[in-house]
Amino acid sequence: MVTEPPAHRERCLRCRRPRRACWCPHLRPVESATRTCILQHLGERKTAIGTARMAHLSLPNSELHQGVSFVDHPRVRELAAAAGTALLFPGEGALDPAALRGRPPRTVIVVDGTWSQARKVIKQNPFLQALPRLAFTPERPSNYRIRAEPSAECVSTIEAVVHLLGALEGAPERFRPILEAFDRMIDLQIAERERRTGPPRRRAQPRARRPRVDVTVAALRSRAADVVAIYAEANAWALGSPVEGEAELIQLVAARPETGERFEAVLAPRRPLGPGVATHLELAAERLLGGEPAAEALARFEAFVRPDDLYCGWGPYALGLLRAEGAPERDFADLRLACARSLARRPGGVEQAVRLLGRAELPPPLGEGRAGRRLASLLEVHRRLVGE
Predict the structure, then answer these.
(1) How far is CA 233 from the centre of its chain?
(2) Could you tell me if residue 59 is inside a domain?
(3) Residues 186, 222: one domain?
(4) Full DSSP string of 279-342
(5) 67 in the Ramachandran plot: left (φ > 0), alpha (ψ -120 to 50) or beta?
(6) Same domain (yes/no): 129, 231
(7) What is the CATH number of the domain that holds 131?
(8) What is the chain's mean pLDDT, rounded?
(9) What's the CA gap between 222 and 27, in Å, rounded?
(10) Cα–Cα distance measured from residue 290 to residue 268, given in angstroms and rounded to the nearest whole number
(11) Number of domains in the chain
(12) Same domain as 304, residue 181
């Protein structure tokens, strides 16, 4: 028997808030000449009182991307490289948006997160540092009464965007209705606090992370015969899309550096193919939709690997996708961390790391699409780290 979830657990698919705290009816979308590209730090994406999504839903001419490093993000790189793009972030030479009235930039990139998170995003994406900057002093204190700001000059992302576009287009009153949803969210949150009569809620302790192999070059050398490099791609939908669920494994490539043996599989999606997935993976949509059943692909992969194998990858993303499919756990070595230790700096994407380690040209692909290119780079990074 199917039962309805309790009312307090029902969520709005648009704003992702509980139904009783939904602010969607108060959204007032406003068209703008300037495109707003919001880069949301991953630490902010589950913050219930964040405003990046609200700003995005209020501006038809806007985009919302989540992450920390966007070095390998084609769309963000495209926008940053285009003429007429500026960055809203204080810094030397930053202009007040009002100074550009009548000749506004085509695109403004806005970083969403705490100041510490925002600075991290700027630091990890050198191409953002090269953009002309905009900055302003707020006309009035923030109405963000449910979240402490580090200083009186700080405002929420949605307040910053409203001020920015109003100043650029010389029409501040036209954009102020966007703040109705923001004000509604603040009022709902305050009312919820006042409604509670019990003790303050205690945040659940995070689950302990699964143990992972300490990434040292010596460890990679000592288990050379067991190492399997893995790279995976996913079918994912953006937050707020009509398709629910986490990202699902859709392509898996692997290789043994010691022997050169390779594995490759394209898995048929179990959910509708996300918009832009085929483009980002550099594979035709027909190829993805015609992939083999997930169970068959995973069975082939389990026949390729051994129980005592040591996976290595560029961050734990591929490992997480395999785990979500129920694949058995194996030791994992993070080559991104090993590379960072070797270079004494953050290496960026795996292809950038190849160049930082001394190879001018990328190695030939070892499979289809983007995954094939990055698997080849992963093996090159491994080779240079262990000195083979």
Answers:
(1) 14
(2) yes
(3) no
(4) HHHTS-HHHHHTPBPHHHHHHHHHHHS-TT-EEEESSSHHHHHHHHTTPPP-EEEEHHHHHHHH
(5) left
(6) no
(7) 3.40.1280
(8) 83
(9) 58
(10) 6
(11) 2
(12) no
The highest-confidence range among 139-148, 229-238, 283-292, by mean pLDDT, is: 283-292
Contact in structure between 322 and 302 (CB atoms under 8 Å)? no
Q: How do residues 47-87 score in pLDDT, each as one tens digit?
A: 766 788 889 999 999 999 988 999 989 999 999 999 999 99
The answer to pTM > 0.70 is: no
Residue with the bigger pLDDT between 217 and 221: it is 221
Same domain? For 327 and 378 the reply is: yes
Q: Tell me the residue range of the domain where 86 lies.
A: 11-191
Indicate whether 288 and 331 sit together in one domain.
yes
Is there a domain that residue 210 lies in?
no
Whole-angstrom CA distances from 204 to 178, 197, 209, 211 are 34, 20, 15, 21
Strand pairing category for 62-66 and 35-40: parallel
pLDDT(11) > 80: no
Token duo for residue 224:
């050379």
pLDDT, one tens digit per residue, over 119-155 is: 899 999 999 999 999 988 766 555 544 344 433 446 7
With CA atoms as reference, report the closest residue to 164 among 25, 40, 47, 55: 55
Tell me how many degrees the CA angle 52-54-55 measures, rounded to the nearest 5: 65
When pLDDT is averaged across residues 12-32 and rounded to a whole number, the result is: 81
Determine the length of the chain: 388
Domain-embedded: residue 183? yes
How does DSSP classify residue 182? H
Residues 160 and 221 in one domain: no
